[in-house]
Amino acid sequence: MKKIIKNFDDFKIINYYVGYVIIGTASLMLIPILTSLIFKEWSVVLDFIISINIALTLGIFLMFTGKSKVDKVKVQWKHGLIIASSSWLILTLICAVPYELSGKTGSFLNACFDVMSGFTTTGLVLTQDLDHLSLGLNMWRHIITFVGGQGMVVLALSFMVNHTLGAYKMYVGEGKDVELVPNVKNTARLIWKISIVYLIVGTIMLWINGMFIGLQPVSAFFHGLFIFMSAWSTGGFAPMSQNILYYHSLSYELLTMIFFVIGSLNFALHYAVWQGSKKEIFKNIETQSFFITALVISFFTALKLTNSGVYSNGISVFRKGVYNVLSAHTTTGFGNLYARQFATEWGDFSVVMLIIAMLIGGSACSTAGGFKGLRVGIVFKSIIAEVKKLLNSDRKIKVFKFHHIKDIVLEDAMVKSAYLIVTCYIILFFIGTAIGTYYGYPVLSSAFEAASVTGNVGLSIGVTTPSMPTVLKVYYIIAMYLGRLEFISVFALIGVTFGGIKRLWLKLLKQ
Amino acid sequence: MVKTFKTIILICILVFSVSITAMALDYNNFNNLIENSKKIDNNKITLKGEAIGEAMNRGEYSWVNISDGSTAMGIWIETEQARSIKNFGKYSYKGDIVEVSGTFNRACALHGGDMDIHASSIKIINTGGIITIPISNSKKNIAIVLTFITIILGFFYIRFYKSN
């Protein structure tokens, strides 16, 4: 009996915090409501009023059920992981309501696909007729990707005044593990402070540039705001169906490139640079790893595209080749060519290069996805360490170190954890490729799209369309979710769910 | 004499129709352009679509993007000609349907490898304009009911919170 009551306590405490995260995120719907009111998009205003009320009702109800146990039950690791993973799932369903009510998605599954794509900063789109989408819904799409990049739990934590005892466990559950300052609440606030400062500067830069390339001032502002939110969060959404190609502008592409590269860097690195430690950029294992892999992949892709005559001059190779490689590597997914051009023009080698770039991804504790530069660096260091150990005598004990904000000793547990996560990503990628080929897509196209969803990138070779098989849509949603939360918290949720079902079955069988 | 005239007219019709076919292929589905880009590269084509977003003025020339409903394509066009497009598609607006004739570039060397069309002429086929988006009564009612429920629930939660 005591155990059952304790299980209920677990549920109550999880409910309370999930409700809190839902209310925090749903409150952001006030921004598209305000936007739609200003631009007289009355039908959209109603869509968002319905959606925000559903979210607030559910959030308040969940907080009601758990209120009595807050500060009485200690938040454990399992709670933190489940709060993060279940918040993401519930929010995906709730935030898809305005999409569905807009009538632009075709089905609720497509709406959920787009929301998960936004939250996980993937950037794949199933919403149709983007070019006629309301400003309100466009605002919502980009807010989703901006908030998803920093994390909804991070957002909720930064507003939390009381009950912050288990905050660190929830924070880790969302795939972040770096504490910039000793307190998690302040770390969350700092992450938001960094992002908001960049948002203001970046939007102004893109706004001015937008007017120079011929956009009207109001339109240039919204394009600048949306594109910055997407670039910084390495999301890949854009207000127009042509994505970055719509602007036909080198300067706009250069600015986005700078923003998504900065956005893919670790928040701890941003903080260190803000604190005056500029050398950290060159010393950090993640930036070293990123610049080496980005340079090598860009070089070989550019070489192949030039030699095979796909592009006739250096500027074209840079704008199409290097831009898309960096967009893939930082897991942004901005594209300045049509999805099918990868398949029909680029050739197999360049596509393989993009797949590798997408799988490697950006930095840990950033808005980017993929294996992450830190893990790639650790894996390489561990290989070098193993080789060195073999070459040295048994009596000589050598300590291997790497630099990530501070000098860290390369420990076996760290290496094991890096290998484990990389292995999980590879398995997810192979399953995605296999399902794609099962439905008749070519192997390379399936692999490209699987790498894109696994690494939360958003580039497409043409597989992701509203007419693709439902199973593939569901798998892609799962892959984006697992990839963004880095497996562990989702595994905890699955474990608890199946454990609960198993216990229920056993109980029923005993009766 | 009449026979000679008939023959000349027939030849003229034949030559004219063949030359039109050879000059420009019609494209209403832009995906066909993308899929067959290598074959069509540097050819003269004609395509129809809705002008979307806005014209981006770059001096003597402007960029106009036109859409077939699912895919959009960039048109590099003289600014004077671009001014003939009055309506651009966006939320609650239908853009002008235009017919563009010009040269298709798979990877335009002038524009950093963009797939585009350098237009020589443009014709407005259908004029666009404002679309009225109806406000559903059922949506209105649901919104009112849900707002009411949220306010009551919020009120009870605050009371419950204060009492603890």
Describe this structure in words.
The complex is a heterodimer of chains A (511) and B (164). Chain A has 511 residues and is mainly alpha-helical. Chain A folds into 2 domains: 2-263, no CATH class; 277-468, no CATH class. Chain A is 69% helix and 2% strand. Chain A has 23 helices and 2 strands. A two-stranded antiparallel sheet of chain A has the order 1-2. The longest helix of chain A is centred in the middle third of the chain and has 29 residues, at 184-212. The radius of gyration of chain A is 23 Å and the shape is globular. The two termini of chain A are 16 Å apart. The mean pLDDT of chain A is 88. In chain B, strand 6 and strand 7 (114-126) form a beta hairpin. The termini of chain B are far apart. Helix content of chain B is 38%, strand content 37%. The longest helix of chain B is centred in the C-terminal third of the chain and has 27 residues, at 137-163. In chain B, the strands form 2 sheets. Chain B has a 5-stranded mixed β-barrel. In chain B, 32% of the residues are buried. Chain B has 2 domains: 26-130, Nucleic acid-binding proteins (OB fold (Dihydrolipoamide Acetyltransferase, E2P), Beta Barrel), CATH 2.40.50.140; 137-164. Mean pLDDT of chain B is 87; it is low at 17-23. With 164 residues, chain B is an alpha+beta fold. At the A-B interface, helix 3, helix 16 and helix 17 of A face helix 2, strand 2, strand 3, strand 7 and helix 5 of B.
